[in-house]
Design a protein that fits this description.
alpha/beta; five-stranded mixed β-sheet
């Protein structure tokens, strides 16, 4: 299962030093419902190597605003706490796998 990323914990998660993937989503977003299960699968597949989480933009506006999230789903990819890549809109699983592998 993906971690729950919130306004109160995202800085700690990024500071851990591991690669981080954050899926910005909302419950009412149709394309987010397609990406969500992929993110959950990847969280299991990369457990221990990459921190993968989801951030509900309706409940966590601060983190979404900090990274300029205007469209969802948006998935951000971090290495050493720095934003290095992003995917705006839904994409098939291999797109996410390629971006995650580039973090390792």
């Amino acid at each position: 299962m993906a971690l729950e990323i919130t306004d109160s914990n995202y800085k700690e998660i990024l500071a851990e030093g591991k690669p981080v993937v954050i899926d910005f989503w909302a419950p009412w977003c149709g394309p987010c419902k397609m990406v969500g299960p992929i993110i959950d699968e990847l969280a299991g597949e990369y457990e221990g190597k990459v921190l993968i989480g989801k951030c509900d933009v309706d409940e966590n506006g601060d983190v979404a605003a900090e990274y300029g999230i205007r469209n969802i789903p948006t998935v951000l990819f971090f290495k050493n706490g720095e934003l290095v890549d992003k995917q705006v809109g839904s994409a098939p699983k291999p797109v996410y796998v390629t971006k995650i592998e580039a973090l390792l």
